[in-house]
Design a protein that fits this description.
By secondary structure, the protein is an alpha+beta fold. It is built from 10 helices and 32 strands. The protein folds into 3 domains: about 325 residues, Glycosidases (TIM Barrel, Alpha-Beta Barrel), CATH 3.20.20; about 90 residues, Jelly Rolls, CATH 2.60.120; about 130 residues, Galactose-binding domain-like (Jelly Rolls, Sandwich), CATH 2.60.120. The chain has an 8-stranded parallel β-barrel, surrounded by 5 helices. Strands 16-25-17-22-19-20 form a 6-stranded antiparallel beta sheet, with no helix packed on it. Strands 15-26-31-28-29 form a 5-stranded antiparallel beta sheet, with no helix packed on it. A hairpin with a 2-residue loop joins strand 2 and strand 3. The mean pLDDT is about 95.
């Protein structure tokens, strides 16, 4: 049993003063086979604690259906950290931000009657309670007060950046206490008046999130918390990328190390955000919406202390020198490294069009008006909206309102144009040449907003479709979560300009990490042995997808690329280096 608490201006663990030197590392962004490797590297840096968010949407993908296996096995991750002598900080939300889809909230919440997010709203809190009943039951045995490694837990996350509902925050706090959470509770917010006024609670430790100017941040903290340890819960030593950014965001190692040094000199405890970023596998990337909608890329490299694939960086070495000024570093034996390998080119010899595969991927749903993905009980992926337009119309205006987030338009099987949410409400001039015309609109959910005022972010066609002044009705919709593509029959029916699946096989005889280069491809999703690696898009800055070795297997492997815009050469290449940026 252990007791971690605040005494005057220090953290105290079992009566002894301790400075928390922590690294952010999310179990759900890293293959479980790599957890130990990354945790040992964290410890070798001189850190004594690992911090992680908890993504509700990963653990309750469907209402009332809970999942805690593989990448989602939070108990195993925390137990491993404890076995390695590390403390653990858990940030259970229910909202996490973290550049993760919907900030970790499950998409099905948007289909709940009368729901309002992140406030004292009964429909919302009822679902939070149901999740916390399950989650906290798993975490309770792992608290330091029960002999485990968890020393502290967060109430909500950066709430002052969103709202000021103290009744809501108090409800979450009391809910944790009632369920037996008896470790230190804290909040974390930016160092501004509005954020600290909105996001903090009396009797709960206040911590800060920032990337620079620690002395200025400390001064602001002391206006709201005159005593207690200064803790930077997120020291932003790097940053994330959006699709379409001109280049990969980086932060100079020397600059970041100097700020870390300044913080430690000022007496801060620090959590590096991120120590190791990892990957937004599948459809779990989030998005931002300040001036425009901006989806986050698949890589969560973050220019952090370890690269996306776990390599030690110059920033790691610079931080290690700083930390060594303030404590004696323990000698930690690292694991042998798996290494990287270029497996070469793979020709994807089998092809099949999306439209020809609809009956293998989806059951159609009919409605007078287009329904959002959430109304179709769909979390991720794509939705195909189909209707019949009768009569010849040589020229008209097609007005699709509320495209979330990117729509491909087809008339009678011919690609017409793209509508992208980032570009605003663009109307198209089109023509219908037959007595009966098939209008198809394929909408991609590119990631729900994870931060700020626009987090209520339903997907699909969220409003209406008009031809000139006339609303179009009688829709058939095909939800395409693409979480199981095994039923596709590859008969070679493909138009190179239309969305299609491309399949190939390759053999390997040693398992190494690798990177998939998609030179010559446009936009889509990649599956290896059924595992969704994530999205690619030629706009960059990400040009390769990280392929961790546990996804691969000895002998024959399968790769499937779902390409939205076709390719001249259905060839991919496995290379031994990332080309991020």
């Amino acid at each position: 049993m252990g007791r971690f608490e605040v005494l005057n201006n220090s953290f105290v663990y079992d009566g002894k003063p301790v400075r928390i030197l922590s690294g952010g590392m999310h179990y759900f962004r890293i293959m479980p086979e790599y957890w130990k490797d990354r945790l040992l590297k964290l410890k070798a840096l001189g850190l004594n604690t690992v911090e992680t968010y908890v993504p509700w949407n990963l653990h309750e993908p469907k209402k009332g259906q809970f999942y805690f296996e593989g990448l989602a096995d939070i108990s195993k991750y925390i137990e491993l950290a404890g076995e390695l002598g590390l403390n653990v900080i858990v940030r259970p939300g229910p909202f996490m931000c973290g550049e993760w889809e919907f900030g970790g909230l499950p998409a099905w919440l948007l289909n709940e009657e009368g729901i309002k997010l992140r406030c004292y709203n009964k429909p919302y809190l009822d679902r939070v309670d149901a999740f916390f009943d399950v989650l906290i039951d798993k975490l309770k045995p792992l608290l330091c007060t029960n002999g485990g490694p968890i020393i502290a837990m967060q109430v909500e996350n950066e709430y002052g950046s969103y709202g000021n509902d103290k009744e809501y925050l108090e409800y979450l706090k009391l809910g944790m206490l009632k369920r037996g959470i008896d470790v230190l509770l804290f909040t974390s917010d930016g160092p501004t008046d509005l954020m600290l006024q909105g996001g903090t609670l009396d009797g709960v430790l206040k911590t800060l999130n920032f990337g620079s100017k620690p002395e200025e941040a400390l001064k602001k903290l002391r206006e709201y918390q005159s005593t207690g340890p200064a803790m930077c819960m997120e020291f932003w030593n790097g940053w994330f990328d959006h699709w379409g950014d001109s280049e990969h965001h980086t932060r100079d190692a020397k600059d970041a190390a100097e700020v870390l040094d300044e913080m430690l000199e000022l007496g801060y405890s620090v959590n590096l955000y991120m120590f190791h970023g990892g990957t937004n596998f599948g459809f779990y990337n989030g998005a931002n919406y300040q001036e425009v909608y901006e989806p986050t890329i698949t890589s969560y490299d973050y220019d952090s202390v370890l690269t996306e694939d776990g390599e030690i960086t110059p920033k790691y070495n610079a931080f290690k020198k700083v930390i060594a000024k303030y404590k004696k570093l323990e000698q930690v034996e690292l694991l042998p490294q798996v290494g990287k390998k270029s497996y070469g080119k793979v020709v994807l010899t089998q092809q099949q069009g999306l439209f020809e595969s609809l009956d293998k991927l989806s059951k159609p749903i009919k409605s007078a008006c287009p329904l959002t993905m959430e109304k179709l009980n769909q979390n991720f992926g794509f939705t195909l909206y189909r209707t019949t337009v009768k009569g010849v119309i040589s020229s008209c205006e097609l007005d699709i309102r509320g495209v979330h987030d990117r729509a491909l338009i087809f008339i009678n099987g011919k690609f017409i144009d793209i509508l992208y949410r980032q570009e605003g409400n663009k109307k198209l001039t089109v023509g219908f040449e037959q007595d009966e015309n098939q209008l198809d609109i394929l909408v991609e959910n590119m990631g729900r907003v994870n931060y700020g005022q626009h987090i209520f972010d339903p997907k699909g066609i969220t409003e209406s479709v008009k031809i000139d002044y006339q609303y179009q009705h009688n829709w058939t919709m095909y939800p395409l979560e693409l979480n199981n593509i095994e039923n596709i029959v590859y008969e070679g029916k493909v138009n190179k300009d239309l969305p299609a699946f491309y399949r190939g096989e390759f053999e390997i005889h040693e398992l190494k990490d690798t990177f998939l280069s998609l030179e010559g491809w446009n936009k889509g999703v990649v599956y290896i042995n059924g595992f969704n690696l994530g999205r690619y898009w030629k706009v960059g800055p990400q040009k390769t997808l990280y392929v961790p070795y546990p996804i691969l297997k000895y002998g024959k492997n399968e790769i499937v690329v779902f390409e939205l815009h076709g390719t001249e050469k259905p060839v991919v290449e496995f290379v031994d280096k990332s080309n991020l940026g």
